[in-house]
Amino acid sequence: MTTDARTDEELLADVAGGDQIAFEELHRRYARSVLGIALRRIGDRGRAEDATQDTFASIWRSASRFDPARGEATSWLYTVARNAIVDGLRRRREPPVDDAPEMAAPGPGPDDAAEQSWVAWRVHRALEVLPEQERSLVELAYWGGLSQSEIADYLSIPLGTVKTRTRSALSRLADELDGEL
Amino acid sequence: MAEHRDLRDLIGDDVEPEELERLERVHALLEQAGPPPELPPSLVHAAEPPSAKVIPFPRRYRYTAIAAAAIAAVALFGIGYLAAGGPDEKPVETLAMRGESGASAQLAVFAKDHAGNWPMELQVSGLAPGSYELWLTRDGELAAPCGGFLVAGDETTVPLNAPFKLNEFDGWVVVPVGGDERVLTT
Predict the structure, then answer these.
(1) Considering CB atoms only, which of A90, A117, A124 is closest to B178?
(2) Lowest-pLDDT range, A62-76, A100-114, A154-168?
(3) Residues in A touching B3 (Cβ below 8 Å)
(4) Are B183 and B99 in contact (CB under 8 A)?
(5) For residue A81, how far is the Cα from the chain centroid?
(6) How far apart are CA B84 and CA B78, in angstroms?
(7) How confident is the model at residue A110 (pLDDT cuts 50, 70, 90)?
(8) d(CA A145, nearest CA chain B) in Å
(9) Predicted pLDDT at B75
(10) What is the ipTM score, two decimals?
């Protein structure tokens, strides 16, 4: 759960001033989002983790360039992450997995892939605002392969509570993802 | 990709239609996004931010160092001023880019630095909101990425960089992130 009330924009301003606590909070909010797009882009987990470290180093160095008048912090961070990931690939002279023109594309087309990357970025970031018990419940329900009854057994809570908490979590996510809905 | 789940199974039936519609959209986004990755222990906390190591001068050398730094700064400014040809940095080349949808752009390429970077400024208008990348092309194929940017309004201006030997390429294109459809070409 978010323990720091500062907005992403305020955190970036504080990071620009050398605030390491603000940097740690931004990392907490975005680490999984950054790793997610690095994995989509690179494929290899070890290299994606390196790219995530590179991204946060880049955020630390360039936070002063963020201008809130020109857009939201999350969009700026997304761009920094994508650039850091591409730069890392370029330094290692390796083509990005999802940009290689000769690659077969069994999944969604390029536009869809770009949109999915952005949607995943926003959704994974939004999950970080949920209280821990709601976040883990959403992850179990959507990606854990468990039914609501199985989740109730697993967490030793009544089925009604599972549904109430899931609804509360989705409502909170709707508030957070207002611009995407 | 997660299997499709029925929202009513997850939250029950006792939901107002308006709220149900709102939650349906979140439900769809969650299914579209897929699971977030688990963080390895090395990424649970932020790494120590990179910082310059500061080695203080002994007090007796401080004024000498300040004077030397001032002389060096004046000298470097003079060299830079002369090299740039004046107070305003002007692009060495400005290229027009066009797209089929009526989108257009101006790509200003500034003088190469000593390391081989070509700073650029891309001014784009008419592109649909989204994320894009500028690429150098060779024989019509995407050959070298020059950075990404987001478009949210009618016009966007972003600084970019091409750390390549430009004479080894034959043009620039803008493509959606992750794609190779040319939305702007030189």
Answers:
(1) A117
(2) A100-114
(3) 145
(4) yes
(5) 10
(6) 10
(7) low
(8) 8
(9) 53
(10) 0.81
pLDDT at residue A180 is higher than 80: no
pLDDT band, residue A86 (cuts 50/70/90): confident
In whole angstroms, what is the distance from residue A42 CA to residue A33 CA? Answer: 14
- For B104, the 3-state DSSP assignment is strand
pTM confidence score: 0.57
Q: What is the DSSP string of A108-123?
A: S-HHHHHHHHHHHHHH
Cβ-in-10-Å burial (0-12, 13-18, 19+) of B106 comes to middle
Distances (CA, A) of A166 to A160, A174, B169: 10, 12, 53
Q: Does the beta-carbon distance from A79 to B131 stay under 8 Å?
A: yes
Q: Do A32 and B10 touch (CB under 8 A)?
A: no
Cα distance between residue A125 and residue A132, in whole Å: 14
Indicate yes or no: CB of B179 within 8 angstroms of CB of A111: yes
C-alpha angle B40-B45-B50 in degrees, rounded to nearest 5: 115
Contact (CB<8Å) A90/B31? no
